[in-house]
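Dear all,

This email documents one entry for the complex benchmark we are building for the journal club exercise. For each entry we list the sequence lines for every component of the assembly. Then comes the predicted three-dimensional structure of the complex as a token string, followed by one or two observations. Please use this as the template for your own entries, and keep the labels exactly as they appear.
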Amino acid sequence: MAEVELHEKQLLRQISKGDEAAFALVYARHQGQIYRFVLHMTGSSATAEEVTQEVFMLLIRNPNGYDPAKGSIGAYLFGAARNLAWRAIKREVLDVSLDDVPESESILTDDWDLLEKLSSAERIDLLRKALLTLPELYREVVVLCDLEEMSYAQSAGILDCSSGTIASRLHRAHAMLKMKLASMVGASHV
Amino acid sequence: MSKTNHGQSGSEPLLSTALQELSRSAPQSAPPELGQALASEFHRHHLRRRIIRRAATLAVTLGIGVGLVWLRLGNPVIPDARHVSIETSDSVKRSASTESQNATAQAGRNQIPRTSVRAPRGVLRASTKPSATGNTPFVALPLFDFRIPQEELRVVRVEMPASSLRLLGAHVNDEVIARRVTADLLVGPDGTPYAFRLVT
């Protein structure tokens, strides 16, 4: 861990000195995750591109803005991406109020069976749409833990909360997703 | 990366599978054009920074150089228009000699002795341009400050006891302390005397 921190410090120092190879290394290491995170959060590849660019521009303009004591470069970049993604989401008014989500976790078995019968592409499309209807707080834990396969601890570091909060949010997010999916499948087969 | 078990329910495996499918279907990286654009932006940014840094260094160096030249050449000059020259203690004897010779010519027996007036040690040579009117050089007093702007200095002719000259910081021998002398004082805007020369 200490070695990684030292390496990241060296990389940052080289970046601030204008070392293009160091920047390319950091970019190659983190761009994929950040791009996918924003893509899943916003559902827009244009926004994902814009936010990814903005995040790395931050690193170019002010590499000293990152404090190694507060976490890894990845967590720092994710934090920036998250803020920008939230801003973009608020701009596009994709938000769904928590009141819109039914409290009951009962799922109609028939609808769920229908989901199983869908093709993979159809399921992915439905899931993507359902994900975008989740409130951001829940959407981001699904993206980080399920889609980016991060541990609770890593996600907690990025979202600046405890692992317990991540676990409870994820549990709730799954419940909401299942409800959404079931109702969407049911609606599409009415 | 380790993944923690999120808990299972009847529909959980299907959701988990669907999420994995969604994860796999997503693009694995940002478009390559984005990477190229950022790389060139990085290059431009640091090129700009290097240019700015070099320009700043050059400006500072030039500033220091100009400052040094100004300090060495420009500032210490006392206005030529006033026909003033102030000498250091090394050349005091010479200037004092000239003063006393002039004084001799004009004041006869009541002259101030040749070495009776001396400038204080450590006063910089300010200007040695000879006076166009043949006046003797001014001798710096301890209060002399070469930073005083030239245009603010003026010459005042006074008649006073040699003891007053001593009070101003000039070295005056005891034998002549009681005599009255005529002198030109080089004074600043507030009347502070900075240098003097004997007239009689």
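Observations: The radius of gyration of chain A is 19 Å. The mean pLDDT of chain A is 82.
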